Amino acid sequence: MVLCERQDGSEVELVAKFSGACEEKEVNLAREVIAACLAGDLGLPVAEPMIVASSPQWISSIPDPAVRAKVAASCPVAFGSKLWTGQFSVWNSGTQITESMLQTAAAIFTFDAIIQNFDRRDENPNCLINGERMLIFDHEQAFMHGLVLFWTPPWTLGGLQNFEVPARHIFRPNLFGRAIDFPSIKTSWTNISDQRVTEYLAAVPPEWRGNQGPLDAALALIRDARDNIDGCLQEISRVLT
To answer: How many CB atoms lie within 10 A of CB 118?
Structure first.
C-alpha cells in the first residue's frame, strides 16, 4: 500500500503492483489495465485503476531491502488500484450469495469466464465482501488463452469446461441452478463498441507495450466474445445448470 499524489496535487491511497513481482512483467500489468477498463464498462465492482509513476528517490527510501530490490528491478511505471476502506473481509467458502447479490455475482462469473480468468478460486478468491457489497481485483492472469494448447473459445460447446472443475471459481456453487437474468448481461457486453475497446489499449502506458502480441490477443478476445455473446451465455448457462 502506498500514498500517492495525483496530478492535481490531491493524495490517494492505493495498492500498487510492480512488474518485478509478475511472471510476465509489464504484460501482466497491461492485462490488469484492460481487465479493469472492461469491468468498469460492464458495471462490475472493481477498484478504480490508476497508473503509478515512481521516482528513484522514492524507491531508494523503501526500508525493506527485499522489497526495494524488487521495485528497483521493475518498470518505474506500476499498476495501482484505489484502496477501499471499511469493514471488508476476504470471501470464503461459507459466504452465501443472496438474491440481491445474485446478478452481480453472475455478471462477474461471466466476466471471468470470457476473459479466461481462472484466478478467483477458493484458495485465492481475489474478492472482498462487506455485507452484500463485493469488490473484485487482481486480473493479471486473465487473457492468457494464447498460451493454452488446443484452446477452445468460451462461445463454443465445452469451451468453459475448466470452470466446471470443483473449487475453480468461488461463485459457481452459489450460482448453480439459480435464475439469472442473462439478457441484462448480454446488453452490457453488446454495448461495448470497437472504439471503446481501442481505448482500453490507449490506457496502457507505452512502457508496457514492448510485447504487443498478448495485448492484441486480449482485445481480440473481448471483441470476439461480444460478437458471440449468445454462444458465451449458452455455455455459461450449461456450466451453471
So the answer is: 16
